[in-house]
Fold this protein.
Amino acid sequence: MDFQGSLFEAPTIEAPLFEGVERTLLSRGAWIDIGRAWLPEADDVFATLVRDVPWRAERRQMYDREVDVPRLLHTYGVGDPLPHVGLARARGALSAHYRPELGEPFVTAGCCYYRDGRDSVAWHGDTIGRGKTQDTMVAIVSLGDPRRLALRPRLGGSSISVVMGHGDLLVMGGSCQRTWEHAVPKVAHAGPRVSVQFRPLNVF
Ligand SMILES: O=C(O)CCC(=O)C(=O)O
Ligand SMILES: [Fe+2]
C-alpha cells in the first residue's frame, strides 16, 4: 500500500519490484528472467482480463506459415489504454527496470486466453518484426492456472521448461526470439490461464 497520497485519494496498487527476479543464461546470447508471484493484485487483474478483454479467435502468421491459434487473443497497441491499472503499472515498472539494457520502453500488450488444457501455442519465436534480426525483449506476466512454457534452441539441443504460475513474470531477452523458440504445450487438464506479453515497438 502507498500511504504517501492524501487521505482522500483511492488506495493505489503497489508497484512490482525486481529484487526477487533471477536471470538464467541460455546459449547463444539468450537469457530469461523469472520473478515468482511478481504482479501485485494478480487475482483482481486476472478476473478483470477474463471479463473485460474483447477476446477473439484468430489465425496467425508464425514466421513462415499461418497456423490455427487454439487460444483467444487481443492485442493492446501503442497508446491503447490497458484494462487494469495493475497492468499499466507493471508495464511502467518493466520499462523503467529494463531501460538500461533495452534502450526503449515496452509499448504493446498482447493478451492470450488459454481456456483449458487444449488451448496452446506451437513452437515459435516472436520474429515477425525486429525480433527476427535484432536482440529484443518480451516480458510475459502469467495469470490463472499454471502452464508450462517450454524453450528450445533453434539449432537443436535440449529444451527447458518453466512452469508459469499465477502472477509470475518471465522475460525473454538477448537473442532469445532469434536463437531459441518457445511454446505452451497442450496438457490433459488445466483451468483458465491468461498471458500478457509486453513488447517494444515493432516486435511481435
Ligand atoms: O502464453 C504465453 O505465455 C506465451 C505466448 C507467446 O509466446 C506468444 O503469444 O507469442
Ligand atoms: Fe511468443
